Amino acid sequence: MPELVLPDEVAVVNVGLPMFADAVRAQGRPVEQVDWRIPAGGDPDAVAALTRLYADAGAGIDEANAEVVRRLDEGVPQLTGVSTVAAAVPGVEGHMLLHCGPPLPYAQVCDPLRRSMRAAVVAEGWAADVGEAQRLLERGDVRLDAANHHDTVVPMASAIGPSSPVLVVDDRESGCRAFAPLNQGPGEVAWFGRETDAAIARLRFLAETGGPAVAEIVDRTGPVDLLAIAAQGIAMGDDLHMRTQAATNLLTRTWLPHIAALPDTVRRPFAGYLGGNHLFFLNLAMAAAKCLQLWAEQVEGSSIVTTMARNGTTFGIKLAGAPEWHVTAAPPVGEALYNSGQGPETSAPDIGDSAVLELTGMGGPAAGNSPAVAAFLGGTMADAAAATEGFRAICAGASSRLTLPALGFTGTPLGVDARKVVELGIPPKVTTGILHARDGSGQVGAGVATAPLDCFVEAVHALASTIVHTRLPRETVVG
Description:
Layout: E1 12-15, H1 18-26, E2 31-34, H2 44-56, H3 58-74, E3 77-84, H4 85-88, E4 96-99, H5 111-123, H6 130-139, E5 143-146, E6 159-160, E7 165-171, E8 177-181, H7 197-221, E9 224-225, H8 226-235, H9 245-260, H10 264-275, H11 280-296, E10 305-311, E11 314-319, E12 326-329, E13 333-338, E14 351-352, H12 371-374, H13 381-394, E15 395-404, E16 410-416, H14 418-424, E17 429-435, E18 443-450, H15 453-465
Parallel strand pairs: 1-2, 4-5
Antiparallel strand pairs: 3-7, 3-9, 4-6, 7-8, 10-11, 10-14, 11-12, 13-18, 15-16, 17-18
């Protein structure tokens, strides 16, 4: 028997638990870690559903997913005008408010969103004060519905009524049209869960001055290619969710001559509002994303998520081609930086429709090029890059126009695949602001919310249940 000779050099490939790779690495030897885990956490029902969606129906779903990604990547949403909810948004009649997230009755609405609703009721002129607004809402005299049901997205704790100005965003190829309100700006504002006189005055300013000003500017400039500006903003360090300064500044520069041409009574207050609002482009990016999603959701048989929204009480998603919500409790916002004196105990759960950005290559998928967002993800650009790569693991494609210079100009991950989320146990992470849970003081910090896994599992089961599985008859053997 030949003598057993141990090798002088050892290289290790470790599959599974990283602690073994860490131990080898600590001894100065080369090691490659393969991040393998039990699919779907070992849940047999989820594994069975995934088996159907990958094996039995995989080819058809992959084909549908490729078409969804193509539409998300090739659509050209443009700002074409400004209107009002009553004049432009389908399905809004009478005393009605549109709110963020999945639909829910007023009794279940969280404190910040209640305050925003009351401010909107007063701004609409339906009530003289927030006390009367509360009574109207409690009696059901004001109808409530999810903005997403009306091709509209609203950020944070927004509630908008018929007189609210809305940005009108169109995609010429698909014919899809989406809407979002003008961003209210920072400070004492209703979308941060405030119902003060100043917050109500800001809503009236947007209806009477801000909306007409933007409408006049767009009439002069013509359609604005929103993702062309978004791409430049991301290259300059925006993620287009938590940070939109670059894109806002680029748009303001383009509009500057037209702002200067506004009448004095409009120019000065509008310039003051725009100059103090670094988040102005946020709502434009959201409307652009929603426009793309409206086209993408027309594709049937896909496992791509085309709606992801939260209202501070619930968190919900929809898949392309499927109308039903998959809803669970809204999560807390973790990995957070708080204002002085604030913390998890004063923070409301995750809220707003702005997670539509994470579904279209913005927000979390763009974190890897944003130093500002890196501060919320561990503090280094490596942490920000890891957030982007987390999305890459659960997405079906990549953007050809939203690229990340810090990551070798790779495209941002695009098209969250519910199958991959459940298989890998990696739900999307959403960069977002944090509102006070109960005292109406507004924003208390910012951070990263991890989407609940449960609604993705439910969506996977629902999709699997729609797959008609046909087996060939067994061969009959005669002997």
